[in-house]
Write a structure and sequence with these properties.
Rossmann fold, seven-stranded parallel sheet, six-stranded parallel sheet, 410 residues, alpha/beta, globular
Length: 410
Amino acid sequence: MEENKKILLINYSFPPYPGIGGRRWAKFAKYLAKLGYQLHVISAENPFDYESKYTNDIKSDSINVYNLPEKYPYILSSIPKGIVQKIWYRISLVFMKIAVKGNYYDKAALWKDQLNKKSLELIKTHHIHQVIISGAPFSLLYFCLNLRKDMPQIKLYGDLRDPWTWGNGYGFKIISNRRKRIEILREKKVMQHFNKIFLPIESMVEYMKSNYPENANKIFLLPHAYDADDVNSIAEFTRKSIDGKINLIFYGALYDFLKKEMLFVAEMLAKQNNISLQIYSDTVSYAEIFAKHDILKKKVFYNKTVSVKKIFEKIRSSDFVLMIHPKDIYTNGITTKFYEIVSLRIPILFIGYDPFVKNFLEKNKLGIYINPQETVDLLPLLSEFKYNDRFDVEKHSFESVTKELINFIS
């Protein structure tokens, strides 16, 4: 095999490790393998009793996964319950604060030695010249700078799925200023010494180019995408609205910071008699908000999470997909979820504050944008909406975007 078709991919939460953090590169790996690439993937051992929804995507002889011990205290990955767990949580957090100089919420913070050892072993054994590192966790990118000491010819490509030092996620908002300065310095060194940096949304590209103008020529957009195989496996439309009733569906995580937006949704739905909402999530968070309205007890329903195929089937039998983004989370762009929904040809009802999303939905006539600070009559908006089913979504497929990736690393 050609050496330029061998890639070392480092992605902490690559399947079977569960969670959304492994989806992007599981899909890229799938389509790279289809195009003749050989991937060697370093990821964390799965400490949970369930697997990623995307494990089937990486079942290929061309994708070899090597799991390293997680090392991050398991208790810190969950919400402690009871006195014993709460005590153990605090002890583990103190340990991380002592052991880690930068962000102690970074799951790969204790990975440096084993990561470098395994990376060098794979690079030398398989004659690899290209390494792609995806963060978060972000320490992975910084640690991989050490590879250049032993293998100066190695090309390093960084993929930042989320903001590193300018967002509110991954504990960055609450760590000390001293620790923040360490992370900022690490980000700067990665920007200086990596060959290229990929970012999934345009606003992140603009931010990084303005913040690192001297490195602007190595910063590129590698956009989010949807997997056409997932969509094509779903049967065609089933009948949706009956007798003027409108069915909404929400799927995904119900984060802790959605209370204001959920109150807004509940108040809107309580004013309507013929709009229902099905929620598919791993928790029943905010159920008490809907329970306060008697009219919603027979209109808002919580369901357990289901497979990708099943949720897509549920979406196809709905009238609108409800998406909710809080004000204090960094989005400023079109995520994978948007393209998945658009590929299913179902309009989006977006509740949030993101002007990028507003422009995308309204310009392309793909959904309705509502700012929670506004007063709206929901039923006429939904009933009168005209969807643009001619939007060209194929250019946003992983098959297409993977070809862009190949151009960047060729």
